[in-house]
Amino acid sequence: MKIKRQKQAKKTISFYKYNFGFREPFQILIDGTFCQAALKNKIQIKEQMPKYLMGEVQLCTTSCALKELETLGKQLYGAKIILQRFQVRKCPHFKEPVSASECLLSMLEETNSHHYFVATQDHTVTTGLKKIPGVPLLYIILNTIVLDKPSQASLDHVQAVQLGELVSPAQQQSIRTLKEEQGIGQKDGERRGKKRKRKQSNPNPLSCLKKKKKGVPTPPLKKTEQEGKRKRSRHKKRKVEAGDGTAAPAAANT
């Protein structure tokens, strides 16, 4: 019987993981009625809950559930002691407390965006939970913790998502993250107000060079002119010397 119950719990948990994005550690909202039933049936919630759900858990409650147990008196003193050991989550009824059933339902809102499991023995709470898709329900029966099968609202929601009529919470979250990365979800004013900072870059070394003037001829070198003159003068001297030599013998003959 225990093995069969564990298999059913594993199947139900995988249903909520795949279709509604539940992840460990599982957050479990507990009220006074569940603690009273655990005390009566000698169930250690902190020890048995992780084993039954096969994963890490965070046991939590609300201030409204604690105050309800305080008003009920000594009959539920033991349940109050157990419930005080769990984390207290903030609820919108800080100034004006309401009943535990009303508080738990308000924590889930319409879509159970925080992925809460709810552990309760209150019939009012269980009736309200079955109308909200994606809320796993835990209760105690025959000295054991039982995870209820998915409600009809959860099954209808999954079927609508598969048919393309709705978008699953996991898909909604992925769409939000993509929009944040691309900046699509921001308002136009916020986009325009933010300016991108330009990186400081070093100047281009080619732009620092002096520009060459176009169309101006380069002057000839002086050395080449002097060398040309010298060559010409040497050539003339040779011709003069040659002329003197021819004239001298002619004079001797006369």
UniProtKB/TrEMBL annotation:
One of its GO terms (cellular component) is small-subunit processome. The keyword Transcription does not apply. Keywords: Nucleus, Ribosome biogenesis, rRNA processing. Its main location: nucleus. It is found in: Nucleus, Nucleolus. Residues 177-254 are annotated as: Disordered. Residues 229-239 have a biased composition (Basic residues). Involved in rRNA-processing and ribosome biogenesis. Belongs to the UTP23/FCF1 family. UTP23 subfamily. This is rRNA-processing protein UTP23 homolog. It comes from Haplochromis burtoni.
